Structure to design on (322 residues):
């Protein structure tokens, strides 16, 4: 794999040098492709346009990111730490730089590419069934995958082959969107995924396999403040399980959603977006880590409850006329 990794480093160097004037664009694209954006941005937007599509987006985002977490347990490297750990560049250091989004933890494959490929397939396939020029959404979809992948290479977060591996998750979008489990099934599934991953993690640790990449990130990240606990693999696990649990509770509480016309839906979207923005900005204590992960889990349990039940319910209460 050394040859593959080395070629990836030189590709990242070339990309940074040739597109240095578009740095802010790459950073914006990588933020848009963040799996967290699927829960806080794409899900509420699609839900208030098409309720079934929105539910599918959240379901596919959670499962695809959870599978990405499982694949990360198979190890891999990230460019920003592999440059130093490999000692292949001691004599000739590549002319590359790091960015605030670079120093994520957890290696291969690319979660950004994986979640983007899965959730946007759900959206473009829905659009393609309504539009006359049905090829247009798929062309935009392909351009988006390429842009997100290049942004991850540009910031030294992933190697090219990791981006390609993540993009294959379009298959997940096709398969998972065909059927979304009911409320009770989602609640049990959330608990099962959480317990199953913890058992697998503890089993690998007992075999002497250290799965934490946080020490490597701390060692080679150029700015310590760029390393955030909410980018750790276990944060992704709590996010996914919390979102599935919240979606299951929301579907049990209000299975068909609230009947809203176009204007109340737009108002619900605006209020939900503001609520999710402040929930995302809510600071969490990083010590002890157990408290952080517990609160992070609860934060994403609230996300579907807020979008599906609480805000539309209040809007329906104030706008409903007998």
């Amino acid at each position: 794999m050394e040859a593959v990794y080395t070629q990836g480093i030189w590709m990242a160097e070339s990309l940074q040098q040739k597109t240095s004037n578009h740095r802010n664009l790459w950073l914006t694209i990588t933020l848009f492709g963040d799996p967290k954006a699927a829960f806080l941005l794409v899900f509420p937007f699609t839900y208030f346009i098409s309720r079934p599509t929105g539910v599918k987006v959240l379901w596919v985002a959670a499962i695809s990111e959870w599978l990405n977490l499982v694949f990360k347990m198979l190890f891999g490297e990230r460019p920003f730490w592999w440059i130093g750990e490999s000692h292949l560049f001691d004599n000739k250091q590549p002319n590359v730089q790091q960015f605030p989004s670079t120093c994520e933890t957890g290696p291969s494959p690319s979660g950004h590419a994986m979640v983007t490929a899965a959730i946007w397939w759900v959206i473009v396939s829905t659009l393609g069934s309504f539009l006359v020029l049905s090829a247009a959404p798929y062309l935009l979809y392909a351009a988006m995958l390429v842009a997100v992948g290049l942004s991850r290479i540009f910031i030294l977060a992933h190697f090219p082959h990791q981006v390609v591996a993540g993009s294959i998750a379009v298959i997940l979008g096709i398969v998972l969107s065909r059927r979304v489990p009911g409320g009770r099934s989602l609640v049990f599934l959330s608990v099962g995924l959480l317990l199953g991953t913890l058992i697998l993690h503890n089993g690998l640790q007992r075999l002497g396999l250290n799965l934490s990449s946080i020490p490597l990130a701390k060692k080679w990240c150029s700015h310590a403040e760029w390393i955030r606990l909410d980018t750790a693999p276990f944060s992704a696990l709590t996010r996914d399980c919390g979102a599935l649990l919240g979606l299951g509770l929301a579907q049990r509480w209000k299975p068909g959603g609230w009947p809203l016309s176009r204007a109340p839906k737009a108002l619900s979207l605006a209020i939900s977006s503001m609520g999710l923005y402040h929930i995302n900005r809510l600071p969490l204590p990083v010590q002890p880590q157990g408290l952080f992960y517990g609160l992070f889990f609860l934060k994403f349990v609230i996300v579907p409850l807020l979008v599906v039940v609480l805000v539309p319910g209040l809007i329906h209460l104030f706008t409903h006329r007998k």
Residues 2-319 form one domain.
